[in-house]
Specification:
- The chain is mainly alpha-helical.
- The protein has one domain.
- It contains nine helices and two strands, in the order H-E-E-H-H-H-H-H-H-H-H.
- The model has no long low-confidence stretch (mean pLDDT 86).
């Protein structure tokens, strides 16, 4: 009788554990899908913003183009000219505000999200994605549109594979974090130095190292977000804030992978 009772208890215990594991798996999939939905929507906003500002910044009509100090129309490649709006955004001192505003906003979101309502954090994330799009509008003037599309799909495929590996691997990637962060700071410092050096070789090295760093960060962040859900006991607004921060980190990895791969693989306009 005692053996029968033990077996019955063990059976009920196993069923309970199985149901709990199934609930965790279902909740985890829902949580990660929520993060990816935020990230993809952010990328869509960035893409439309970049394309929109590009279209507003160029014209084929020389009479409608912005003028230099000599009175000549500011010409681009292929018989295109920079409009007054394009001049303000890409040439005038306003360009620094457009470049630096996303940096300020990402700090606001990262360090202030826990004091915000989730709706406000979402709005700031959408604004951040739009500002990144404004700063990326110039790539349509530098690279051929075909190569931009090609590099985007290469980035999407690479990002998807890396994130899937980070989600499914049984290997603990937490030890990679400190090395990747150090590599990230090294890439940032080298990029800033190269603003003054303007070395094509240093830019190539930075791009290659940067691709490796952000590839590693993509897998590492995915596993980190997965573990945060499993061990963090998140719910309600806390889970929503965590999802927004997770989307922000994956979004930044994607954007940086894309821009670095574009520098390596993109075909410049002639």
């Amino acid at each position: 009788m005692s053996d029968f009772d033990r077996n019955a208890v063990a059976g009920r215990y196993g069923q309970t554990v199985g149901r709990e594991e199934a609930a965790i798996d279902q909740g985890l999939r829902s949580y990660m899908l929520h993060i990816y939905n935020y990230m993809v929507l952010g990328l869509a906003i960035t893409g439309f913003a970049a394309l929109g500002i590009y279209m507003l910044s160029i014209t084929g009509d020389a009479s409608a183009a912005a003028r230099s100090t000599t009175g000549a129309a500011i010409a681009l490649r292929g018989g295109q000219y920079l409009t007054s709006f394009g001049y303000a955004v890409f040439v005038s001192p306003l360009k620094w505000a457009i470049i630096l505003a996303p940096l300020a906003l990402v700090f606001v979101i990262s360090f202030g999200v826990h004091r915000m309502r989730p709706a406000m954090a979402q709005i700031l994330f959408w604004i951040f994605a739009a500002l990144i799009g404004l700063s990326l509008g110039s790539i349509f003037m530098v690279y051929t549109h075909t190569s931009i599309v090609r590099v985007f799909f290469v980035t999407a495929a690479s990002f998807g594979a890396l994130s899937l590996w980070g989600y499914t691997t049984q290997r603990d990637l937490s030890g990679m974090g400190s090395f990747l962060i150090m590599g990230l700071f090294g890439v940032i410092i080298a990029s800033l130095v190269n603003i003054w050096l303007a070395s094509s070789m240093l830019q190539f090295v930075v791009s290659v190292v940067g691709v490796l760093v952000f590839a590693g960060l993509t897998a590492w962040d995915t596993q980190r977000l997965k573990n945060e859900y499993i061990y963090g006991a998140m719910e309600g607004e806390g889970m929503e804030r965590s999802a927004i921060l997770g989307a922000l980190s994956l979004y930044l990895n994607f954007i940086n992978l894309f821009t670095l791969l574009l520098q390596l693989l993109g075909q410049r306009e002639e």
